[in-house]
Design goal:
alpha+beta; 3 domains; 10 helices; about 25% strand
């Protein structure tokens, strides 16, 4: 996977970069799929874009045809621009794909390669738990941003609330899990500690968005506490560095930073300016949830970036 990270910042002005993840499917099936995409490219009205896509897909077609027998199963990642970057999936990688049921052919064309998705899918095993309830059936599901799996499905007895409490206790006990649990698909449950309850049935993206928003409210509380310290006459305000990316970067390079509160978009920019080894301190990501919330004020008044130093 390290090989792929170097292509993370490759970017073009149109969606002509291709990311393929191919798993446990024959070369012939892959060639037929690519051939269908070449046919679609012929319908693109922009002649230059059509030709660029056609040339790139044809190069991939030829590469696979020349290097694999028709009945040979392919387990590879391909990044396709004017050249072809190939990464062969390991046995562990293939097992992850099988467990979490990624399509046999995952293809995305975009202005960039989908490296973040690849890295997250194959390396992120931090999950949240959710209970989906449809009438008298309950499914226990664990998921993260790009993966989900049903752990168990069972019928719900008449004593629904008691059963759900027992399930939650078991999730926490046997998985050493202390994070939020999201329950959806029912409105007949009383409020539960450390649970979010929604009456509608939610998809993975909606569930994870709820989880991210919940975590962001926790970050907002931390930010508010830190900003309130500025009004305390006992606070040494010289320990605070505000507003300017160059000033923050300089302090980071001097290893003086203890905590960093930062707009998520600015964090992406900062990561592009520094080697990851420099970011060895607590980072609290900040995103606006509502107009005039503490994050909104932070963006307006402090340019969305504030560092706390160890010493002056």
């Amino acid at each position: 996977m390290e090989l792929l990270k170097q292509y993370k910042n490759v970017e073009e002005t149109s969606d002509t970069l291709y990311t393929f993840i191919i798993h446990n499917i024959t070369s012939l099936e892959v060639l037929l799929f690519i051939d269908s995409q070449i046919d679609r490219a012929k319908n693109i009205k922009n002649a230059l874009k059509s030709k660029k896509i056609n040339d790139r897909l044809f190069n991939l077609y030829k590469n696979i045809k020349d290097s694999h027998k028709e009945d040979e199963k392919i387990n590879c990642i391909y990044l396709v621009d004017n050249k072809i970057i190939k990464y062969k999936l390991t046995i562990d990688d293939s097992n992850i794909e099988s467990t979490f049921k990624l399509h046999n052919i995952y293809m995305k064309n975009d202005i960039m390669f989908h490296i973040d998705f690849i890295i997250d899918f194959f390396t992120n095993f931090k999950f949240i738990y959710t209970l989906k309830i449809i009438r008298n059936e309950l499914s226990i599901i664990k998921l993260n941003k790009n993966k989900e799996i049903i752990i168990e499905t069972k019928k719900i007895a008449s004593n629904k609330s008691q059963m759900i409490n027992e399930i939650i206790d078991n999730i926490k006990k046997y998985n050493n899990y202390n994070d939020i649990i999201i329950i959806h698909g029912t409105k007949n449950i009383n409020e539960l500690n450390n649970c979010i309850i929604k009456k509608d049935i939610l998809n993975k993206e909606s569930i994870y968005s709820l989880y991210e928003d919940y975590n962001m409210t926790l970050n907002h509380r931390l930010l508010e506490l830190k900003l309130n310290e500025l009004n305390n006459e006992k606070t040494n305000t010289d320990l605070f560095v505000f507003g300017k990316m160059k000033d923050i970067r300089s302090e980071i390079e001097l290893f003086t930073i203890k905590e960093l509160y930062i707009d998520i978009n600015k964090l992406t920019k900062l990561r592009g300016l520094l080697d990851e080894s420099y970011l060895n301190f607590k980072i609290i990501e900040i995103r606006i949830l509502n107009n005039n919330d503490i994050a909104d004020q932070f963006m307006k008044n402090y340019n969305g970036i504030m560092a706390i130093k160890y010493f002056v």
